[in-house]
Write a structure and sequence with these properties.
The chain is α+β, with helices and mostly antiparallel strands. It contains 13 helices and 18 strands. It has a 5-stranded antiparallel beta sheet with strand order 10-9-18-17-16, with helices on one face. A 4-stranded antiparallel beta sheet has the order 1-2-3-4, with no helix packed on it. The protein has a 4-stranded antiparallel beta sheet with strand order 5-6-7-8. A hairpin with a 2-residue loop joins strand 1 and strand 2. The longest helix has 17 residues. It is globular and about 65 Å long.
Amino acid sequence: RGELSVEGEPNGVRLILAGDGREEQIRVTFGPEGISDLVRIDAGRDGASAGGGEAPASGDEESAGGRPVRALEESFRTDLDELAADFDAEHFAPSYLAGSTAEERRILLDAVQKAARTAGGAFIDVRGDDLVLILKGDGTVEVSFRTEPEAPFGITHLDVRETEAATERMTITRDNLAATFDQLEADGVSGLVHVRLDGEIAYQRAFGMASEELGVPNRVDTVFGTGSRPIDYTIAAIYLLNQQGRIGLDDSVDKHFDDVPDDKKSMTIRHLMSGQSGLPDFVDTADDWDADLKWIDRGELERRILAADLLFAPGSDRKHSHAAFGLLAAVIERISGQDYYTFLRENFFDPAGMTRTGEYGESRGLSISDFAVGGGPKFVGVPNIPPNWGPTSWLVKGSGGMYSTLGDLQKFYAYLRSGDVLDDEHSAPFRSPVMQVDGSERGFELFSAYNPETDSEAYLFLNTHAGLSKTFRLFDAMGELVEPRR
């Protein structure tokens, strides 16, 4: 038994079947009279394709951009001299090398490296012929590049610039909410907005289309991909286990895993939760056909994490790591004796009445028209919705791989703050002011802000947007509305 997802291919589709720790892929090619070719590709456990050397299968943007995006995102891991030599040898196209000087390339890579080192989030956008890597930290740096159309997809153009000048800021007030979202909808933006100010709903509206193909508009109960929002589910689960006396926040990881390398023996549960683990953000490899969706099991995730090079000694610095929450999800399973998703359902989702929240690869009885279709740049499955993305891989388990609705997320946080599941000590982080941004390359963005001092909150779900730079300005303005900067 397994799960099936479907994604587009030139002149056909690719069927991806995953389950029992294996993944198999079947390419179906269509001709004028129907199916013209049927090829089985066994991806196995390690993602090695029987086809040998195929480009990633999730669309032209992934094929052309995936390799350089990975190298640019991870540029902070090496010194500048080594980085420049590596890009000259491996990532820059001959035409770009011929049309630029070594010093020009070095200056650009230095800017990328500095931005990547301090970035709290990285996003990919498509603008015409350019792919844009957006590195968001104290400010926002946009890395625009183009690649050759064929493997090895060498970079033919590279540009780096800072954005978010004061003149670019967006202002949203109680009075212009309706006009702001009228304009966003006119610009082709689709999603759902909810704003509560001083205890009263100031504005709530679904706008744009959930599915252009089906002619289905977004609704207040439309289901959206929620990016990294499951991090909060993982934190709540760890706090519950701690409250029950089953885990200590200062437990070292070698209390829960065998054969922990020396460099990770001082790493604690608290380090994993607070960004102080030193683990890299993700542990996908170049052989994984998709950095989120390639199926790996828990054992493979644990092996990759324990073998990963640390960015710094645990506790000595702070940098967000999705992989750390994957390891926490593994801890939850090891301690509870239940799988991660079952633990969440029994302890949080079902008691809170969350009936429209689930993992990738399952529909929970919902229909296609209940889901918003992601606007890309990556398109996986027809349509591009979470049930078509295969079972949630341990590449993102604990920090992603789920979907939900406005109502369900509100129920989740209300349940955590109610005292019915977490006591005052363990619910305190969820009763504090917070602004969060989550998203995925399949086209979903989620923003929320909570200000308990004024009983105010905002949610914004997007399934299509007008560019990530404008989207970030929108998020900043929504946050300012709920919790004005002092």
